[in-house]
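Subject: sequence -> C-alpha cells, single chain

Hey, anyone have a minute? Need the predicted structure for the following. Not urgent.
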Amino acid sequence: MFSKKAVMIVGVIVFIAVNVILLSLNSWSRSPSPGAGRIVYPLVVPFQKIVTGSVNYGKGLWNHYFFLVKTAKDNDRLKKELSLAAERNNLFKEIELSNYRLRNLLDFQKIVAKKIVAAEVVGKYTSSWFRTIIIDKGSTEGVEKGLPVLVPEGIVGQVAEVSPNYSKVLLIMDRNSAVDGLIQESRARGIVKGKYTGACIFEYVLRKDEVKVGDIVITSGLDGVYPKGMRIGHVSSVIKRNAGIFQDVIVSPYVDFEKLEEVLVVLNPPVHEFMGD
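Reply:
Had a minute. Here:
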C-alpha cells in the first residue's frame, strides 16, 4: 500500500503533466477552441501562480543567501583591516613612547655628565636575595665595574659585572646594595640599603635627626659612586624607638624597577660637581 504522502506527490506530478499537455495542445492548435481555453485556463492559472510564486520566493532566498555570503566576506575583510590598523597604531604608540623616554634620557644626560652611555635592559633577575638587571652595553662601550646607573627618576644601581657587550647591574633594592644618602631638607645622613620587600631601609639615621614621612632622600656623593644630589626615594615610614641611638626609616624608591626599559651609565661620575655642588 502506498502512503498518503506518496499518493499526493504522484497526484501533483500527474496534475502538472496534464496541464503541460493541455497547454501544449492548445498552443499547437491553429485555431484553439474557446471551450478548451475555458477548460484549461481555470485549471492551469492557479497552479501557475503557485509555481511562479514559489520560483520567485526561491530566487529571493537564493539572492539573500548570496547577499549574506558577500556580507560575511566583507565583514571578515573589514575585521582584518581593523586588526592591521590597530597593530600599526600600537606600533606607532610604542615608538612614540620610546622616543619620549629617550628624549628624557638625552635631556637628563646634559645635566648629569658629558660621558654617558645609554643602554637597554635586556634581562631581569629578581629573587629574595638578588635583584639585578642585564644591559646591552659592556666594556666595548667603556662600561666598567662600579659605575653608577641612573634614569631621570632617580638612581637605579651600580655595575657589578662587565663583559664586552653586556653588563650586570646591582639594583639599589638588592640587599647587597648600599648608597650613602641624605634627607634633602634636614640633611640627616644614613645608608640606604635594599630590603627583600622591594623597598629600602635607611640605616644609621640618628634618633635626634628630624625625619618625617614624605621627605626626599638624595645621594650624598660620599660613597664615591653616585653623583651628589641624585634622588633615591621618599620616606614612607619612620619609627623612633624608646631605646637606641638610631631610628628606623623606610624609603620607597622613585624608580619603578618593574617598568625599567632604558638606563644611563655614567662613565665619569662627577661626584662633587653634580648640580653645582
